[in-house]
């Protein structure tokens, strides 16, 4: 789902898997919560850069998934 050092994007194949699962769940009255971990930002030293990269990543993910995900949990457990 992530690729490259310091370059993060959502793999369209993985996004399609989320869409399929989401459609099945919604068809059966279930809601989807996507929990996104923050461990992939550990190679960035500047807090400002982490915030910028994280915001871009989450915005991109929400744009691609649209209403397929009902809830997002960002930063599961900050260490």
Structural class: mainly alpha
Strand order of the largest sheet: 1-2
Q: What characteristic shape results from the CA principal axes?
A: elongated
Number of strands: 2
Low-pLDDT regions: 1-8
Oligomer: single chain
N- to C-terminal distance: 22 Å
What is the overall number of helices?
2
**How much helicity do the residues have?**
40-55%
The largest β sheet comes out as:
2 strands, parallel
Estimate the mean pLDDT confidence: 78
Set out the fold topology:
Layout: H1 12-27, E1 33-36, H2 47-65, E2 71-74
Key features of this structure:
disordered N terminus, 79 residues, elongated, mainly alpha
Give an account of the 3D structure:
By secondary structure, this protein is mainly α. 44% of the residues lie in helices and 10% in strands. It has two helices and two strands, in the order H-E-H-E. It has a two-stranded parallel sheet with strand order 1-2. It is elongated and about 45 Å long. The two termini are 22 Å apart.
């Amino acid at each position: 789902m992530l690729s490259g050092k310091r370059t993060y994007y959502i793999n369209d194949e993985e996004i399609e898997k989320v869409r399929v699962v989401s459609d099945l769940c919604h068809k059966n009255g279930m809601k989807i919560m996507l929990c996104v971990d923050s461990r992939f930002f550990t190679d960035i030293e500047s807090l400002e850069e982490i915030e910028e990269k994280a915001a871009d990543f989450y915005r991109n993910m929400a744009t691609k998934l649209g209403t397929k995900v009902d809830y997002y949990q960002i930063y599961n457990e900050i260490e």
